[in-house]
Amino acid sequence: MPDAPRHAGALHRVLTIAWREFRSTVLTKGFLFSALAFPLLMVGVSTLLPILMATSIQPMKGAILVDAPASAIDAMRAELDRAANDPVMAIRERVDRGEEPDLDDASAALTPIESPIESIQSDQVEAAKKRVRDGDALALVIIPPASLDAQSKDPTYELFVATKTSPKHTSIVSRSVREAIVRLRVQASGADYQRTMDLLKRPEPNILRLTNDGAEAKERLEGRMLVPGAFMLLMWLTTFTGANYLLTSTIEEKGSKVIEVLLAAVSPMELLAGKILGQLGSTAVMLGMYGMAGLAGLSALAMMDLVPVSSLLLMVAFALTAYLMIASMLTAVGSAVTNLQEAQALVGPVMIVLIVPLMLWLPISENPNGAFAVVCSFVPPISPFIMVLRATGTSEPVPGWQVALSLAVSAASSVGFLWLASRIFRVGILMQGKPPTPRELLRWARYR
Q1: Closest Cα to residue 335, out of 248, 413, 241?
Q2: Tens-digit pLDDT profile for residues 57-74
Q3: Closest to 352 measured CA to CA, from 321, 377, 320, 329
Q4: Residue 232 to residue 226: CA distance in whole angstroms
């Protein structure tokens, strides 16, 4: 039984170091600001943006001067009246025709329209331009009669606005002219305008994915592309940030000789374990805060069905293995150098490896069960990120044995990385002078 008190004492020292590391990172103003700023900023922007947009929208005032046939002027007036009485009409019609509405359409839908249309003659165009330039009129529209001919192959019109005219107001005027010309051309061809618009409505597909087990699953394109990327980025940012805190704290303590005081009370392995465990706590705090902010956003958009509980649990499990591998590499680098400048040369190769999952996001999201994606799922240290991309982004489930094997490979690799880091840490933590090369680090790992 004499080993029990010794093991209990070692565990107590490790936990003491871990709490010190956690406290020195998390319970600081800098961490609280950096960790809280992003989710609070996202919540604040999503809350205040609609209010700011509503209060900043200026009504569209000023006369619209039009040089065009009477039928075009009447059609323009009708289009503006429809836009004023039904603000979302333009967006709805564009969607029905299979077009993608833009930001101008969305903002224009909220703009009050108070601009009358004035008809002018062709010999009044120059005077009309002066009125627009001086701010006495909102816009000048010139529609050639040929543009209203159903046989015309290239209908066009001219729109003159002042320099200070709001882009939203320009968009509203331009859209009313465009829709008026289209309506008159359709009518000139002898066709019914509304019937023609109905024929142009794009049918909405019901996309189903046929899975290997014979079932049919609803295809969610946004789920296949955006959700896995969000999971992977969240895991990548939090694990790398926590490991980077470990790198900088190790270098600072080594440079200020604090590490020598700590090693007088604990062994190198206890110190390494405590530091990694402490920064694991800070990583968990960031993962929880950012994750809850993301879930709150999805809940507000009624899109929680894109994030099943199983995906959250998988992300947590793989995030743990990813953190241990990255933390091991950066701790080994931090113990071998004396300042951040020296660390850059050794961190470079690590960063190249860690950027690979970001580069593979789109290819793997496109084919999550392809041979390349399967192979990458078992290659450390990128395996946790790749498997999260695969497991959270496909309607067809990833085979359970692949998830289990990838998790086992990642866990075993974490142990291996920790072992290598411990070998380098015990040699490099008290060394000063010229920083080692990658080859020398490997030689340190072989020391008995």
Answers
A1: 248
A2: 677 888 899 999 999 889
A3: 329
A4: 10
Structure-token pair, residue 113: 């329209």
CA 439 to each of CA 149, 284, 342: distance values in angstroms, whole numbers, following the listed order: 78, 33, 15
Residues in the chain: 448
Residue ranges, comma separated, of all CATH 3.40.190 domains in the chain are: 61-199
Beta-carbon neighbour count of residue 90 at 10 Å? 23
Strand, coil or helix: what is 142?
Answer: strand
CA 429 to CA 424: how far, in whole Å? 8
Q: Supply the pTM of this predicted model.
A: 0.66
Q: Count other C-beta atoms under 10 Å from residue 173's C-beta.
A: 26
Q: Contact 279/20 with Cβ under 8 angstroms?
A: no
| Peptide bond preceding 112 in cis form (omega within 30 of 0) | no
Nearest to residue 209, comparing CAs of 319, 330, 368, 357? Answer: 368
DSSP letter string, 168-213: HHHHHHHHHHHHHHHHHHHHHTT--HHHHHHHTPPPPP--EEE-TT
- Tell me how far apart the alpha carbons of residues 148 and 151 are, in angstroms, rounded to a whole number: 9
Q: In the structure encoding, which two tokens stand for residue 229, read together?
A: 């990327």
Phi, psi for 214 (deg, rounded to 5): 90, 0
**315 contacts 420 by C-beta, under 8 angstroms:** no
Query: Which one-letter DSSP state was computed for residue 378?
Result: T
- CA 106 to mean position of chain CA atoms: 22
Spell out the SS3 assignment of 225-272.
HHHHHHHHHHHHHHHHHHHHHHHHHHHHHHHCCHHHHHHCCCCHHHHH
Q: Under a CB-based contact definition with an 8 Å cutoff, are residues 232 and 284 in contact?
A: no
Query: Residue 244 has which token pair?
Result: 């980077």
CA dihedral of residues 120, 123, 129, 132 (deg, nearest 10) = -20
Closest by Cα among 303, 291, 309, 310 to 398: 310
Kindly report, residue by residue over 170-203, the tens digit of the pLDDT: 888 888 898 889 889 988 888 888 888 778 777 7
Region of 149 please: left (phi>0), alpha (psi -120 to 50) or beta.
beta
* Contact between 79 and 180 (Cβ < 8 Å): yes
Residue 140's pLDDT is 93
Nearest of 160, 126, 165 to residue 140 by alpha carbon: 160
CATH architecture of 61-199: 3-Layer(aba) Sandwich (3.40)
- H or E segment to which residue 159 belongs: strand 158-161
